[in-house]
TrEMBL record:
Gene Ontology molecular function terms on file: catalytic activity
Active site: 100 (tele-amp-histidine intermediate)
Superkingdom of the organism of origin: Bacteria
Record domain HIT: where: 5-114
Motif (Histidine triad motif): 98-102
Pfam family, one: HIT
Source species: Heliophilum fasciatum
Upper lineage: Bacteria, Bacillati, Bacillota, Clostridia, Eubacteriales
Protein name as it appears in the record: Histidine triad (HIT) family protein
Length: 114
């Protein structure tokens, strides 16, 4: 996707503060963090949202969660816990249509969210 901002980060065309990479996944710090730790975990492959995912994306979707687990461990978040969020569509406030998992930690996270 030429114009997708997260595809540009995957291709190295715009800078990002990366914390993790493997063959399927890239993770970097959110530009506007809403928690002391706020990391975005994205697949290298462009998938617009959970709603756009198909069975062909099964391995990529699994890799997203496994990367989240690895990053949480690397960042020392397991003791106090963390939250994974995937905003999907309008009412959830999705603004970037390249699927991404928000990894939030470092403060008490209210539930339900506002
Ligand atoms: P959404 O609302 O789609 O779930 O989340 C998109 C997230 O991407 C937002 O938290 C926003 O701050 C972050 N974001 C948008 N553009 C960029 C960017 O160019 N670089 C980084 N690091 N984060 C971005
Ligand atoms: Zn993309």
């Amino acid at each position: 996707m030429d114009s997708c901002i997260f595809c540009k980060i995957v291709r190295g065309e715009i800078p990002a503060n990366k914390v993790f990479e493997n063959d399927r996944i890239v993770a970097f710090r959110d530009l506007n963090p809403v928690a002391p730790t706020h990391i975005l975990i994205i697949p290298r492959e462009h998938i617009a949202s959970v709603s756009a995912a198909t069975a062909d994306h099964e391995a990529t979707l699994g890799a997203l969660l496994l990367a989240a687990r690895t990053i949480a461990a690397e960042q020392g978040l397991e003791a106090n816990g963390y939250r994974l969020v995937i905003n999907t569509g309008n009412d959830a406030g999705q603004t970037v249509f390249h699927i991404h998992v928000h990894l939030l930690a470092g403060r008490y996270l209210e539930w339900p969210p506002g």
